[in-house]
Amino acid sequence: MNPAALIPSIVLTIIFYSSSNSFGTLKSKLEQNTHKIVHEAYHEGNWELFISNADGSKQRNLTNTPKINELYPQCSPDGSKICFLVDTGTGRNTIRSAWVMSRDGKDRVKISDHARQPCWAPDSKKIVWLPQEYKKWNVVDYYSNGLMFYDVSTKKSTPHPISDKIRHLYNPSFSSNGKWIAATVHAGMGFNHAILLIEANGSKIINLGISGCRPCLKPNGNQITWGSGDHTIEVADIDLDSNNPKVGKRRLMIRDKVNKIYHSEWSPEGKYITFSRGPNGKGDLSKPSTYQGACEMVGVFARGWNIFSVPTANGTEIDFETASPGKDYYQVSKNGLSYKEADWLHQTK
Amino acid sequence: MKLPTLLLTATLCLCSCGKETKKTTQSTIELKTGSGIEVVYVPAGTFMMGKENGDDDESPAHKVSLAGFIMDKFEVTHEMFIEAELPNPSHWQDDPKKPVEQIRWQEARAYCNERSIMEGLDPYYDETKSGFPIIETANGYRLPTEAEWEYTARSGKDSDYSFGSSRQLKLHSWFEGNSGKRTHRVGTKKPNNWGIHDLYGNVSEWCEDVYDPHFYKNSPELSPAGPETKSSDPKRVIRGGSWRASSAMCRVSFRRGERTGDTDACFFTDYCGFRCVRNISKEQLNELIK
Questions:
Q1: Distance CA A165, CA A144 (A)
Q2: SS3 category, B286
Q3: Minimal Cα distance from B131: which residue of A?
Q4: Is-contact A68 A62, C-beta < 8 A?
Q5: Contact, A203 vs A162, CB < 8 A?
């Protein structure tokens, strides 16, 4: 057969696959992904946790507690449990507490009152949480003093070895090898603002030297994602098995000149980064149980914010100005009711 | 309570009403509040605000009349934040008597409310409504208006610096010429004529007003409070020199608009601080003096 005769069919095949809306698209890949996404949302005057498939389908209210405000879900690596925050009371009388429940929203157990931003240890047996700086209410994200470990089986909390030296951390994230806890510090511990690695069972503190906040360590490997600005999220290599990890090659930059992009989280297999995206704002106090502050902060209503996912292997840059929806990024949620702080819930192992 | 020190300051208050220059007598009173914070009673008065032939936004110079008020003798410090159980956002935390900085505009107003509550006063800002609008009838602490700030900084003088020329600035101010690129303990430089410290340096100070470079063209004479705005997050006035300011920026009429930081999760403007004021009637003043 004359090879030249094959060229038209090859070209047609390439065109078919590259333009297809159903085969090999990001949507279809997410449709096939068996993990779930859990996030906070402001629903009918109340904060709730919602769960959906990875493509956003079959979304449902996981907590469904009209008088209790649930926020900031973090899913255990084994997919069995979710820890989260609860706000009770209003205004100055608000008490924020940390809780844990099973993946179906049942068996809720309080970890502590006056607690901030929990995260899971890689063995799914311990939860890191941050005690509030004072008992008095404040919405500021770095309002913490110390670092605690909660044992899920004994229901007891113990302080980190240098908890008394730890102040103003937020957004902790445990490394998959159990050696390090990454977190942002603001105006504390001798730092003006930095992303730190803190030795999980020791006293070593490493300033990663990257600007920005809210780091999240890859659940199955040596990479980190973080917000390097209001409008950028980055992914880079980091050698977490080393005793002196450093941030290495930058792998991915997500940009949005118009909207803020925050709260980047890895999918369990590390193929996707999920994040919140929406316009700038400082809350809306006409919404009950919300606060005034930068709209990316926990408890601040963020009008028009939704959850998005991007694949991590498609290239080195995704710019919303030029990116193709459905190819370069996928919009997981649609209605923009302050959808923030998404995390991936592993299919039960 | 420590007896208040009465400072009778005979000053030449340059109220240029037409071609007249009027001499008035000002009396300030140093006091301690219920929470032990040192303040100065600044009496009602009239002064010429702004500067002809200064920067564009400083002109025209115009007559302003104000009611009396109480102003903090020092910038709000780290230890005052600790006392109020608020998270201290400051860059330099090596001395509790240093001024708070990296403070967003709205957080400074929130501190005012905290202090009002600590002293049994009515909060001046309504925290239940977006933007924390003013409750005009409240007697609590608030940020100064730009006019109140300049009136106090001038302390009866009409020169660029109330103490004379820029040559004396290093005696009265931490600025780029002597700060070593950092903040310093409050009250370690000479006060102005009315006994108030650090107005000319250390950290610049948030005011309540929206910043408008053209506002002086239309400013009312009586108690101006800045222009109205429809913006949800306009620039706000910040006044006074700072550890990083040039001597020209420490001038009493120098104006600047600053982003509030209220929509920023991370606010790194480490020269932004503040001090509080509050309205006070003669009866309330007499009560405080007792």
A1: 12
A2: helix
A3: A292
A4: no
A5: yes
B chain contacts of residue A262, beta-carbon cutoff 8 Å: 265
pLDDT in tens, chain A (349 residues): 565 666 655 555 444 444 444 446 899 999 999 999 999 999 999 999 999 999 999 999 999 999 999 999 999 999 999 999 999 999 999 999 999 999 999 999 999 999 999 999 999 999 999 999 999 999 999 999 999 999 999 999 999 999 999 999 999 999 999 999 999 999 999 999 999 999 999 999 999 999 999 999 999 889 999 999 999 999 999 999 999 999 999 999 999 999 999 999 999 999 999 999 999 999 999 999 999 999 999 999 999 999 999 999 877 899 999 999 999 999 999 999 999 999 999 997 5
* CA nearest to B106 within chain A: A293
Q: What single-letter DSSP state applies at residue B121? A: P
Q: In this structure, what DSSP letter does residue A1 have? A: -
Helix, strand, coil fractions of chain A, as percent rounded to 5: 10, 45, 45
Q: What is the ipTM of this complex?
A: 0.89
Cβ of B263 within 8 Å of Cβ of A281? The answer is yes
- Whether A283 sits inside 8 A of B130 (CB atoms) is yes
- What residue in B sits closest to A191 (Cα-Cα)? B91
In chain B, residues with a C-beta closer than 8 Å to the C-beta of A286 are 130
CB of B132 less than 8 A from some CB of A: yes
Report yes or no: B213 and B186 within 8 Å, Cβ to Cβ: no
Tokens 């991936």, residue? A344
Is A278 in CB contact (< 8 Å) with chain B? Answer: no
Q: CA neighbours within 13 Å on the CB side: how many for A317?
A: 5
Contacts of A293 in chain B (CB under 8 A): 106, 262
> Which strands sit side by side in the sheet containing A36-42, from one edge to the other?
A60-61, A47-53, A36-42, A340-345
Q: In whole angstroms, give the CA distance from residue A230 to residue A297.
A: 12
Query: What letter represents residue A281's amino acid?
Result: G
pTM of the model: 0.90
CB-CB contact of B79 with B35 (8 Å):
no
Whether A185 contacts A193, CB under 8 Å: yes
Contact B106 A292 (CB under 8 A): yes
Domains in chain A: ranges and CATH: 10-345 (2.120.10.30)
